[in-house]
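Changelog-adjacent note: as of this version, every example in the card shows the full chain rather than a window. The one below runs 172 residues end to end.
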Amino acid sequence: MAIADRFVKLLSQIEPTGSELEKLATHRSSVASARGRALKTNRVEPIGSHSRGTAVRAASDLDLLLVLSVKERTWGDREKPSSTVMSRVRAELRATFGSTDIGRDGQAIVVSFADGRRPVEVVPAFYVGPGHENYPVFEIPDSMEIPAAQEGTRTTPTLEFKIQNDVACVDS
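Full-length structure tokens:
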């Protein structure tokens, strides 16, 4: 068997199955609809391995960027601490998915649905503005308590994805 054929076979054995992808799509929809009930949000975007096409069967979780409205960030004329934002998102997800195990892992709220599949990691973020080449920049509340005047972690998932694909095209 040629090396190229072996890689094709390997990929077919490690790529997520159709049923896995369907279940993750259902979970994404559940989180998206839940967030609209109590949280002021703009959208939910997939990030991580599933959005990049690098997910591994039965091993990769689903990462979602929950883009919150600026109204979720402020209280009057002051910014809420990161811990308050994270706690609110966790509480709203817990209220929606009452019988589901919901925890924290750094900057993500981890939703472990009862189907036993990989968890969904919901990463709250705020739109900051356009960045390099007008790609959107988001700020993720830090996992540790910091003064409100300091920034969280900034990310540009679509630009990172573009750069990764550009590098992959150059390498091939």
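Structural remarks: The longest strand covers residues 120-130.
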